[in-house]
Amino acid sequence: MFLLCNRVYVRWSRYHVALCLIKAQRCQSTEAPLAKTSFLTGAPHRKHPGVTNLNIVRLPEQLQGTALSIIQRAEVKGLAERAHKLSNFLWSRKRALETSQLRKKAILLERTFLEEESDRHKDGNYHEQEARIRKRVLSELRRTTYHRTTLRYNEDLGLVYMAARLAGGYAAIFRALNEIKKRDPLFVPYSFLDFGSGLGTGTWASHTLWGDSLKEYVCVDSSGDMNTLAEQLITGGTEIDNPVIKQVYFRQFLPVSPKVQFDLVIAAFSLSELATLNERINVIFTLWRKTNFYLVLVENGTKEGHQILMEARDTILKGEEEVTYDLRRPAVFAPCTHELPCPKLIKQPIVPCNFSQFYYSLPLSRSLERQQEKFSYLIISRSEGEKAGKTEGFDMARLTAHVHRRPRHVQCQLCCTNGELQQLAVTARHHGRDMYRCARSSDWGDLLPIFHAEETTENDEKL
User: Fold this and answer.
1) Prediction pTM value
2) What values do phi and psi take at 373, rounded to 5?
3) pLDDT tens digits for 225-253?
């Protein structure tokens, strides 16, 4: 009888222990997902912190109305056709070949032609052979070298540019600046500098986002006619001293003092207007010296535009000793999630790192037409301590292509914090419900949370 009671007690004790373990595991299994969902800060998955895409962007009503009024008064002949040609020209534009590159190309051609001449005319006159080779080299260089055309923006070309690029340029700039607004809500700029301001689209975009705090706008453009057009857009196309945006100052040159800084500095579609690498580097250093918080660079979403931005990125990150008035180090804010060499340039040199934004074009034919702007951008911030945007428990990877949603998985191309491009099929089973639902709610250009493997392993062990 004693043995029977003892066995029953032992079995009851084991059952009690097992029941406690099951309860503990249940508690752990309900607590584990909270560690991952904490990054949502109460928001639904479709509005997770990495979502930076916008719906269709519209021009501000006052800007659109004034632009149409100016164009109608000017009565430019063949405006639609000229605007289309100018857009194609600007999209296909390339950087001028540097002198060192041209010299290397000439040397290679000379060697090739010398071998051909040696095989054909073994006993020919040396001076005649040298003259023929030089002539062939020059002819081949003229035929194959890209000849860059410098644009002079007078009043007529400025109106054509307005019809062609006002809405698309505004959409790209607004999309880039909006990422700062969303990811850094505490940023309240007081002063703004736009280099290569053109029609003032940067001023309008920044005013739309931070109009309550911005008290000074400085627009710098070498074309006096473009500055006049931009000023007309701000004043409503009239001479009445009541501008839509106040405290806007137009200059043809950058402020002289290197100690004068602006909270927000932007250069949109401007670096590509500079012919040589040295010019671009000098401008980049100047703009960085004048940056107090954020420097925003925007270019066409072409291979050339992407490479120009990577030049600027490397120039700022590797040339910190050039800046002596502000010792805060630069940190890449967007779109890169790292400061390593661009994997797109290494693994996919033909495909640029670009992004897309839909917008409504300027209704020249009295109808709004939805169009798509492809652009590349770079945002660099001044960092006083650790890298900006650093998070615990997860990293943010940038979606660099369209997201393909399948029934039970999501196909993503990611630029990760380790500097690698990764093709990832996100599933709820392997990556967790939170990451899966965030992936389904994300698109090209958004940031996707990637949870650390250590955290996932610990949670799996708990479960």
Assistant:
1) 0.84
2) -105, 120
3) 999 999 999 998 776 677 889 999 999 99
